[in-house]
Write a structure and sequence with these properties.
This protein is of the alpha/beta class. It has a domain of about 60 residues. It has eleven helices and twelve strands. The protein is globular and about 65 Å long.
Amino acid sequence: MSKTILRVEDLSVRFRTEEGVFNAVDNISFTLEEQKTLAIVGESGSGKSVTSLAIMQLLAENGHISSGEIYVDDENILNMSSSQVQHNILGKKISMIFQEPMTALNPILKIGDQITESIIEHQGTGKKEAYEIALDTLKQVGIPSPEQRIKQFPHELSGGMRQRVMIAMALVTRPKIMIADEPTTALDVTIEAQILNLIEQLKSTFKTSILFVTHDLNVVADIADDVIVMYCGQIIERGPVVDIFENPQHPYTKGLLATMPTLEDHKGELPTIQGGVPSITQRPGGCYFHPRCPHRMKKCETQSPGVYTVGQQQVKCFLFEGNKEERNDGK
């Protein structure tokens, strides 16, 4: 059996708004196995990026973890001080590739300075050795003319090269876990394919586990071992990637997959899921998905469904009420 490298238990994240305090992530649990890729999917507002930021302890000032535990290598990092997390966990054991490199990279620092800063901080090397490690890592992520690029500023690089720099920064300290938050959103399809292939190669080379956050199911099909589907801060379906794609169970998962374009000819428009994800201040009672669900029942409007086992999948939906029930907590 694979070793569990990341374990999230009963995690809830709240945000203060002008209208009050609301849950953005609602009591979720999952594990990431060594050298595996776990994808978290869902529309904008589903809570997937908030989950990744909570793990990295990078929530906005109006957000906080209200309950739960986050274990990295069997250590609960929520019991650590911010200084301990900063020096012993972030960068060293967990790194993150952010969605938009132009906002994540410092525009007034050269690429080399930004990469070597992390090496010196976490590995205690000298500046010259850190520079050589940075140069070697840029070569490994396929940056052309790395001796030139390492001396340039972010605005002098293309979008694809900036994303490769972000991957280099995430990998330079050889972390056990890499969180990729929509890492290909701003890229064209050709560069996207290159970046995904690169992430797969580096996962194998450095034996890194990946938590991949995305709304793009086509990407998930290519890279994931297991999938979590989130909606309104809850996990509503989970399972191996093959089972999720070949036999989706939750009406929301089925809706997401139905919107995926294929190579087959389509007459008319692709199907859509009616409505949108409600904001954290306007979530309905009962099952959060019921206003958009074609299979909703009366009790869906007032009761939250349990989590039921369907083959290798766990599904949070009353349609499977006769199946073996797991914990009724959104896990």
